[in-house]
Specification:
This protein is of the alpha/beta class. It is built from twelve helices and eleven strands. The protein binds nicotinamide-adenine-dinucleotide.
């Protein structure tokens, strides 16, 4: 390789995070995507985080920079992104980090990406329900998904922005309009409910939470969050009081954090952990690993509703198999009916937002 070309490539690589327009420059200077790795970095996937400078976005960006399955990490936000990007880019892990600031850089942030994680939006404040967030976050998700449809229509999308029960149907409508909708690739992240359920159940059983697997089905708000305590692994049983306590605590986990933070936001650190656990499962699926199964809110035929959260098998093309709910006890059957009623309204609200 010519020394001048090599030097130009090296400079472009080093300064990639400082000036996002370098991604344009790379094309012009023949710096191919395959070369955009830190030396010694292992081959991996290209991941973008939209809303990367936020309460969830920052720890999420840090944890994704530590993930060996990531080769390129794009951080996009409408504020504060250069600082977060410079900071994260000093970590001596394999992934190359680039920052993108503002709507005019959205397309550059998305182009070539294989997994998009979206925690952009406003979080819940005390006294605010998830539905109060609806109008602001619905608009943000619509704009970002229009960009995805245009720039990386084959990417897997992990949608975190609340209310997930409505933002996933919104994203689906945007992709349908653009002619790019693939239901297997749109995944509403409900992993935090599973993470909380595993933790709280482990506390009651006196087990290590890493040994506990609690399926959580339905959706991601209040009574739509339905932990299936009858299907916990390892097999165990709960008294009616324990069932009531655990179900309520899992359903109100978000409120517990909002109240404890007293005006300073909602769950961010546990959410970033859960988002990375979920993104890592998606990347292992993309890589072709067998038996990657996690819960997510997806297009589904498991109930009469068009979207529903159950366990799904993640593969090279996204959610390749959506599992059934499985046998329920009477407590869970009552919970399921309540969940479906509320879910139906939230899904409809999302669809109407786009159709109006
Ligand atoms: N799915 C879940 O389990 C779960 C859990 C907790 C929070 N959430 C949701 O995640 C979202 C983010 O929460 P947070 O605490 O990080 O909020 P935050 O306000 O700290 O961060 C949100 C970030 O999004 C950015 N943003 C706003 N508009 C944008 C746009 N158009 N494009 C790109 N970025 C944009 C903001 O600048 C900010 O940096 C909220 O909607 C919250 O309710 C979901």
């Amino acid at each position: 390789m010519q020394p001048a070309v090599e030097a130009r490539q090296r400079i472009a690589r080093l300064s990639a995070h400082l000036n996002p327009t370098n991604s344009q420059m790379e094309v012009n200077t023949m710096l191919e995507r395959v070369d955009c790795r830190a030396k010694g970095g292992s081959p991996g996937f290209k991941v973008a985080i939209l809303g990367a400078a936020g309460g969830i976005g920052q720890p999420l960006a840090m944890l994704m920079k530590m993930n060996p399955l990531v080769s390129v990490l794009h951080l996009y936000d409408v504020v504060n992104c250069p600082g977060v990007t410079a900071d994260i880019s000093h970590m001596d892990t394999g992934a190359v980090v680039r920052g993108f600031l503002g709507q005019q850089e959205l397309e550059a942030a998305l182009t070539g990406m294989e997994l998009i994680i979206i925690p952009a939006g406003v979080p819940r404040k005390p006294g605010m329900t998830r539905d109060d967030l609806f109008n602001i976050n619905a608009g943000i998700v619509k704009t970002l998904c229009e960009g995805i449809a245009k720039c990386c229509p084959n990417a897997i999308v992990n949608l975190i922005s609340n209310p997930v029960n409505s933002t996933v149907p919104i994203a689906a409508e945007v992709f349908k309009r653009a002619g790019t909708y693939d239901p297997k690739k749109l995944l509403g992240v409900t992993m935090l409910d599973v993470v909380r359920a595993n933790t709280f159940v482990a506390e009651v059983l006196g087990l290590d939470p890493r040994e506990v697997d609690v399926p959580v089905v339905g959706g991601h708000a209040g009574v739509t969050i339905l932990p299936l305590l009858s299907q916990v692994k390892p097999p165990c049983s709960f008294t009616p009081d324990e069932t009531e306590y655990l179900t309520k605590r899992i359903q109100d986990g978000g409120t517990e954090v909002v109240q404890a933070k007293a005006g300073a936001g909602s769950a961010t650190l546990s959410m970033a952990y859960a988002a990375v656990k979920y993104a890592d499962a998606c990347l292992r699926g993309l890589r072709g690993d067998a038996g990657v199964v996690e819960c997510a809110f997806v297009a589904s035929q498991v109930t009469e509703l068009p979207f529903f959260a159950t366990k799904v098998r993640l593969g090279r093309t996204g959610a390749e198999e959506v599992y059934q709910i499985g046998p329920l006890n009477e407590y869970e059957r009552v919970g399921l009916e309540k969940a479906k009623k509320e879910l139906a309204a939230s899904i409809q609200k999302g669809i109407s937002f786009i159709k109006k």
